[in-house]
């Protein structure tokens, strides 16, 4: 997004229903508008009792209340865009339709909401016809595939070509642009396309691998209000959709870190400012400095992969990546690339048993043993990285991380091994250790940093997932609760963020060959993480 600090915030009105869990409807709209730098206003059409698991009840206030809200806004505020979401019933649709006709905003986006992602009707069946009658007020409509099928009066599209054909038919029928969305298609990709009336070929197409998360509550609401905001500022539909999509994909990637609800949770609308608000420089600039901030944990704990005290080595320009707003980061590409490996890790018997607490003690102890062998090499690798680090702050971060691993490691040895000597390292453990030492010792900072990143990131990810599962089965008395808590700990998560930023910054100035070597190192480390989790004492001893 190319904005200057003085660019005025577009005033964007959301006309939508509510969601008390904050992920869809008017809450999602306001967050998304703010995330895109707009000023959000809100008129409520229906009060919906819903959560991440479904819709419980819908209460529609009298239309006079709706009319009064719309009038109150129109009499006082000049709007740059309107986004229409859930309308629900015929009287509400007709009231909003009349109002849109009288108060034309420069940008009008209608998301023809019919059902919630988690299930539950949000539009009365008899209201479908009324909804069709107001679509000509929209500059763009954003139906999902089932909604598109209703508007096209055809069965739900099962292929992307069918979806595009329905999109063209709907654009022609209603004389408006249609964003055809592939979120509901089966398969690994989520294409979207901008289709315009009277044109055979889409005006713009967007690709991208499906983000592996079940937390997609409110994606449609979020995308439509975000793009209304960007287009209000730029007037560019194809570009605005691209910007909003890139931001939404980041919000989907960060969704699992939110822990809201037990069903299809919300996306992380403010993912791109998360690091910014945790940055001490930002907090003090905002006038809320607290110089006595509590020190971070020392990173002592099983496989404490170097979690330096809070703030250590936080790059001064921690905002750099965020300041780029919605640009895809190099590490996003790495993360998407290793999605299949993440899925394999999540499905490993060792990992699932760790989450639900059924893993045998002996298997866990053997794993910890191997982990300690690994950590010895890992701390050396972090120290080598510190030596090669391009700047003081990154050097401090990795040096502190190396020290924290050594401290955590020796504490663990004392706590877990007692007087017993450790098992020898397995072939897998040795291979991973050798790989890290080679990449950090021989290949320079950029490749070395990419090689150690999975050890942070995959553990933060797996730890968060398993903690969620452990809460589902019962956290109290869970045999591995302390271990899991280490990795879902915010300190570990923010250390992961710093390591990620270090890789992004190194990639930004690296030549193509180095970037390719960084990709290879990251991928190989992910595979070694998979092998590390997959190994058992029997494999290592050559037992069948
Ligand atoms: N798992 C996912 N990964 C990446 N993009 C997704 C994912 N799920 C949905 N999207 C995107 O989110 C947007 C809205 O998704 P969609 O599911 O089609 O709409 P709705 O939320 O209205 O049902 C689309 O741009 C779609 O491509
Ligand atoms: C009030 C309201 N409006 C819309 C949706 C649809 O949400 P989604 O974006 O997941 O389709 C919802 N669940 N609640």
Automatic annotation (TrEMBL):
Q: Where does it sit, as one GO cellular component term?
A: cytosol
Which UniProt keywords are present, listed alphabetically? ATP-binding, Kinase, Nucleotide-binding, Thiamine biosynthesis, Transferase
Q: What reaction is this protein's catalytic activity?
A: 4-amino-5-hydroxymethyl-2-methylpyrimidine + ATP = 4-amino-2-methyl-5-(phosphooxymethyl)pyrimidine + ADP + H(+); 4-amino-2-methyl-5-(phosphooxymethyl)pyrimidine + ATP = 4-amino-2-methyl-5-(diphosphooxymethyl)pyrimidine + ADP
State one molecular function term (GO).
Answer: ATP binding
Q: Which residues form the Pyridoxamine kinase/Phosphomethylpyrimidine kinase domain?
A: 19-268
Tell me the Pfam families matching this sequence. Phos_pyr_kin, TENA_THI-4
Span of domain Thiaminase-2/PQQC: 338-535
Q: InterPro entries this protein is in?
A: Haem_Oase-like_multi-hlx, HMP/HMP-P_kinase_dom, PM/HMP-P_kinase-1, Ribokinase-like, Thiaminase-2/PQQC
Q: Does the keyword Kinase apply?
A: yes
**Recorded superkingdom:** Bacteria
Task: Locate the region Disordered.
Answer: 1-23, 289-327
Basic and acidic residues bias (residue ranges): 317-327
- Pathway annotation from the record: Cofactor biosynthesis; thiamine diphosphate biosynthesis; 4-amino-2-methyl-5-diphosphomethylpyrimidine from 5-amino-1-(5-phospho-D-ribosyl)imidazole: step 3/3
Tell me which Gene Ontology terms the entry assigns under biological process.
thiamine biosynthetic process; thiamine diphosphate biosynthetic process
- PANTHER family membership: HYDROXYMETHYLPYRIMIDINE_PHOSPHOMETHYLPYRIMIDINE KINASE THI20-RELATED, PHOSPHOMETHYLPYRIMIDINE KINASE
Tell me which NCBIfam families the record gives.
HMP-P_kinase, PRK14713.1
Q: What function is annotated for this protein?
A: Catalyzes the phosphorylation of hydroxymethylpyrimidine phosphate (HMP-P) to HMP-PP, and of HMP to HMP-P.
Record-given protein name? Bifunctional hydroxymethylpyrimidine kinase/phosphomethylpyrimidine kinase
This protein's species is Kocuria tytonicola
Q: What is the lineage of its organism?
A: Bacteria, Bacillati, Actinomycetota, Actinomycetes, Micrococcales
């Amino acid at each position: 997004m190319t904005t200057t600090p003085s660019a005025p915030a577009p005033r964007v009105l959301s006309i939508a229903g509510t969601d008390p869990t904050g992920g869809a409807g008017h809450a999602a709209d306001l967050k998304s508008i703010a995330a895109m730098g707009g000023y959000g206003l809100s008129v409520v059409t229906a009060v919906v009792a819903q959560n991440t698991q479904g819709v419980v009840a819908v209460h529609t206030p009298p239309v006079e209340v709706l009319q009064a809200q719309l009038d109150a806004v129109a009499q006082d505020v000049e709007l740059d865009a309107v986004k229409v979401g859930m309308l629900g019933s015929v009287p509400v649709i007709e009231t909003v339709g009349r109002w849109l006709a009288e108060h034309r905003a420069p940008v009008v986006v209608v998301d023809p909401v019919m059902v919630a992602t988690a299930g539950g009707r949000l539009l009365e069946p008899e209201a479908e016809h009324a909804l069709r009658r107001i679509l000509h007020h929209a500059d763009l409509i954003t139906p999902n595939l089932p909604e598109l099928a209703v508007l096209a009066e055809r069965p739900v599209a099962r292929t992307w070509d069918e979806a595009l054909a329905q999109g063209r038919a709907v654009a022609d029928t209603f004389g408006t642009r249609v964003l055809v969305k592939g979120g509901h298609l089966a398969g690994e990709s989520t294409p979207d396309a901008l289709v315009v009336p009277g044109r055979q070929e889409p005006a713009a197409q967007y690709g991208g691998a499906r983000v592996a998360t079940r937390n997609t509550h409110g994606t449609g609401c979020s995308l439509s209000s975000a793009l209304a905001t960007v287009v209000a500022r730029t007037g560019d539909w194809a570009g605005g959709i691209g910007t909003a999509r890139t931001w939404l994909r980041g919000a989907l990637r960060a969704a699992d870190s939110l822990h809201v609800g037990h069903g299809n949770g919300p996306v992380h609308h403010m993912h791109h400012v998360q690091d910014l608000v945790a940055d001490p420089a930002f907090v003090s600039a905002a006038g809320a400095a607290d110089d006595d901030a509590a020190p971070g944990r020392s990173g002592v704990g099983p496989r404490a992969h170097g979690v330096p005290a809070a703030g250590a080595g936080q790059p001064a320009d921690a905002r750099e990546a965020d300041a780029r707003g919605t640009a895809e980061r190099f590490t996003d590409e790495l993360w998407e690339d290793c999605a299949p490996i993440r899925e394999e890790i999540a499905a490993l018997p060792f990992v699932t048993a760790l989450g639900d607490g059924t893993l045998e003690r002996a298997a866990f102890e053997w794993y910890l043993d191997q982990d300690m062998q690994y950590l010895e090499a890992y701390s050396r690798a972090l120290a080598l990285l510190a030596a090669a680090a391009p700047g003081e702050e990154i050097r401090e971060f990795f040096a502190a991380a190396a020290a924290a691993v050594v401290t955590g490691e020796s504490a663990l040895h004392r706590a877990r091994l007692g007087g017993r000597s450790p098992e020898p390292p397995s072939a897998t453990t040795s291979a991973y250790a050798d790989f890290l030492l080679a990449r950090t010792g021989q290949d320079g900072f950029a490749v070395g940093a990419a090689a150690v990143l999975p050890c942070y990131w995959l553990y933060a990810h797996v730890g968060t997932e398993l903690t969620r599962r452990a809460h589902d089965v019962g956290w109290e008395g869970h045999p591995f609760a302390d271990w899991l808590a280490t990795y879902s700990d915010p300190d570990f998560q923010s250390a992961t963020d710093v390591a990620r930023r270090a890789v992004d910054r190194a990639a930004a100035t690296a030549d193509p060959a180095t970037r390719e070597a960084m990709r290879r190192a990251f991928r190989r480390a992910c595979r070694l993480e998979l092998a590390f989790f997959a190994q058992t004492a029997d494999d290592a001893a050559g037992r069948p």
